[in-house]
Amino acid sequence: MTRFLHAHLHRFRLRDLVVAQLAISDGPPRPVMAVCPTCGAAYFADLEPADDPWTLQLEEWEALAKLDGECPDHPHTFLVGRA
């Protein structure tokens, strides 16, 4: 399961994730983000720096669908994917 965190409420964790990605990669950091198509609430996948974000396309789609269905009552965090 992939945990998505509200980007504004968990901005320090997002900053730590971006800094960790910068330390292990030559390219720009690419956190996995999902933005509610209705209100613009942004969430990011709470990954470890070594996790491959390119394997999470299905989880991104699930996160977008969940955000769209729950707008405007967005949680601080939610899980998508299989256990």
Features:
83 residues; alpha+beta; 2 helices; globular
- Please give the alpha-carbon distance between the first and last residues: 5 Å
Mean pLDDT: 84
Strand content: 15-25%
The total of beta strands comes to: 4
How are the strands ordered across the major sheet? 2-3-1-4
Helix share bin = 25-40%
The global form is: globular
What is the helix/strand order? EHEEHE
| Main sheet record | 4 strands, antiparallel
Helices, by number, come to 2
Query: Structural class from helices and strands?
Result: alpha+beta
Radius of gyration: 12 Å
Detail the poorly predicted runs. Answer: none
Give a verbal description of the structure.
It is built from two helices and four strands; from the N terminus they run βαββαβ. Helices cover 34% and strands 19% of the residues. The protein is globular and about 35 Å long. It starts with a strand and ends with a strand. The chain is an alpha+beta fold.
Helix-strand layout with pairing:
Layout lengths: L1 E5 L4 H14 L8 E3 L6 E4 L11 H14 L6 E4 L3
Antiparallel strand pairs: 1-3, 1-4, 2-3
In short:
By secondary structure, the chain is of the alpha+beta class.
